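Researcher: Please translate sequence to structure tokens.
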Amino acid sequence: MVARSQRTRSHYATRLVGGALTAGALVIVGGTYGIVPATADPASAPANAGEAVQRLIDLSRQSEQLNQQALNAQSDLDTKVTAAQDAEQKAVDAAGVLDAAKQEVKRYQPVVDRAASSALLGSRTNRLTSLLVSSSPQQLLDQMSIVDLVGARTSDQLSQYLKATQAATAAETTARAAADAAKAASDQADAVRADLESKRAALQGSMAGVIAAWGQLSAGDKSALAGSMFPPGFDRDSLLKGLVPGSGTSALAAGLTRVGDPYVWGATGPDQFDCSGLVQWAFHQVGKDVPRTSQQQSTYGTPVDEKDLQPGDIVFFYSDISHVGIYAGNGLMLHASTFGVPVQVAPMGSTPFHSARRF
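Model: Translation complete:
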């Protein structure tokens, strides 16, 4: 385990190169990026070059984790906001149905009022009454027909009133439930929004620390840490021979065109990336809509065993799946590493492997 940890630190160290961004803190404000000067605390100055390098490695790793966490929180917020909007629309629709139901009840209310008044006053019009007041057989028949018609109409209207009242009661229950659901969805969105702001604040502080630590490295340290864009013997043309359009291999080909572009927290291209942003961008070029974060990407596609990896497969690292790259064959991966390190092809054996997927 100690050896593995040392290899991991060495892996990060050999990938760091300077000059990608000036010594300033990259801050996120409303989804945009800006540079503000970073200041190092003299009291926390590293004792030696080795300590400075290690601090940079540790801070870079922390920033990468916080970056993915903030992206996940943003994705969660987007989902919650959509759910809240849908719930609010359902509440509006339910309120509309309730208003219509109330109007229907109101339409039949006069009939109910008249029937109630008649019952209260003891007024009753029936066939016997018609017989007593009729002066001829024809008048009797006419009055009896009218009584039957009025009775049938009143009964039908009272039945419609009952149905309208039941519909209004059901609509009121639905409207109340929809309003409650809308409020709950809105509250959930507010909670996630607060969590996102907290993660963004933590990320900004971590980024400032990374850049300050980078600024404390000597030119010699930066030069020693600089690595090449491709490992010795890597043949891009041979790797991409016979690629299948729309496959992971063609996504790898698209990604390889971005080698040398800078790493920027939260970036998705076209000329700067974070790790999951590069994967998403590469597959978008071949017509595949891949999720935004490394954790989300780890559930997309189909699982692949490490021993069965093929160029174009997606490889994930660390127990929290906070780093991702595209497998490039022979134990190599294409990835956007961390601040100061451009997109490059590098060995993946020294990074704690988690899983792999085929998109």
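Researcher: Any highlights?
Model: DSSP finds nine helices and eight strands in the chain.
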